[in-house]
Amino acid sequence: MRHATTNGDARVWHVSDDLAARYAEGVLPEPEAWSLEKHVEGCGGCAATVSEAVRGTAAGPVLAEIRDAVLASLPAPAPAAPAVRRPRRRVPHRFARLLWAAGPAVRGAWLPAVLVVAAGALALAYGTGYPGVRALLLAVAPVVPVAGVALSYGPHADPLHEVAAATPGGGLRLALTRTVAVLAVSLPLLTLTGLLLPASGAPAAAAWLLPGLALALGSLALASFVGCRTAALLTGGGWLLAVLGPVPAASSGGAAGARLAEQLSRCLDGVGAQSAWASAAVLSAVLVTARRPVYDRPLGR
After folding, report:
1. pLDDT tens digit sequence for 118-138
2. Long-range contacts of the stretch 238-243 (C-beta < 8 A, 24+)
3. What whole-number distance in Å separates Cα of residue 32 and Cα of residue 37?
4. pTM for the full model?
């Protein structure tokens, strides 16, 4: 469908003759047609290939006549003014593109929710003296990135999701950009909050980092099968059920906190548990890579 060439370290795809022919005949799926049209805006060779394919169809002579008529009706061009070279400002342009790509991941209700979780944990620990706040934070923290990924990628998060996913810079690259933005905000903020809380027998404040990463990547991989929101419900809900299920609902605050800390120790503490989470993160990353073509079309809700 596409062929790729290697230019230094960058891998660039170009339009093949078969892809151009299918586009000219109008049988190319819409996402691939959008991607092709975006690519030929900046690639003269591929634009010539597509133009030649279109001229070879039944509509080619008609389009040629229309083009000649339009060109004949245009006035003669005025003498061109001398070109003035201006310094290219690449850094702001790239920063603007990165900010746009990460936008849904750092705006809206999700970012305030992260701040509320951090501030609420500190207030609960030092304002009311509630025991076991770090354990409660460690139980909730891995779900925060999962929720951020679900709310930052998909048709519900971006009105232009279908168009963006079909562009060369969209699809999996866009999903990973927003996932990184979510992790870059939630991981340091919640870990710092955990360091400021009393231990109360709970695991270390950074013990949730690998589980949070694994659940976020697992949610992204699962989204290629069932959609972003359903994947987030399955991964986040499964984690909460695993850590909160064994804690009796009728227990007093101190007993429930101790039981929760004990359950979190089983899930987070030790080389075995952390190695399992690291393996889960690697397997999820491999699955995301293997399912890469799926992200080029809109994911279900």
Report:
1. 898 888 888 877 778 888 899
2. 239/142, 239/143, 239/146, 239/211, 239/215, 240/139, 240/143, 242/267, 243/139, 243/267
3. 9
4. 0.63
